[in-house]
Amino acid sequence: MTRVGIGYDVHALVAGRKLVLGGVEIPHSTGLDGHSDADALMHAICDAVLGALGEADIGTFFPNTDPRWRGVPSKIFLQEAARQVASRSGRIINIDATVMAQQPKIAPHIAAMKERIAAALQIDARCVGIKATTNEGLGFIGREEGIAAMAVAGVELPDLYGQS
Known about the structure:
Blueprint: E1 2-14, E2 19-21, E3 24-26, E4 31-32, H1 40-52, H2 58-61, H3 75-87, E5 91-100, H4 110-121, E6 128-133, H5 139-142, E7 146-156
Parallel strand pairs: 5-6
Antiparallel strand pairs: 1-4, 1-7, 2-3, 5-7
């Protein structure tokens, strides 16, 4: 049985933080604000994978009120999402994601992001699609106040319901 999940995440851009997206540190004057490394792309992908399993969001597994998760790399979250899939005898088929950022330019970093995401999920990098777009100067993204990401995950699970 193939299941699909969607994920979305957004974080504000602030001074004094590193900008990490898809597990890649991107040179920029501001970084994403959050409890962990605030990697909006990995967070959206994590939610998509968990959603395909019918699970709650990343905050249920890794609450931002728990000091254990302060500053941790988001690959830890993706590894747990992959573990949740494996514990159900499933496999991640593919990931498709979009990063929405006015600045910096994301395209030069996509290949490295795909490799890091694939490694965390233990899938082939060819099964990870990442696109980037601006917000054409509109809204909080266009004003460079934040970055958002959305993702879809395809997960194959055993037929638990006797359906074909």
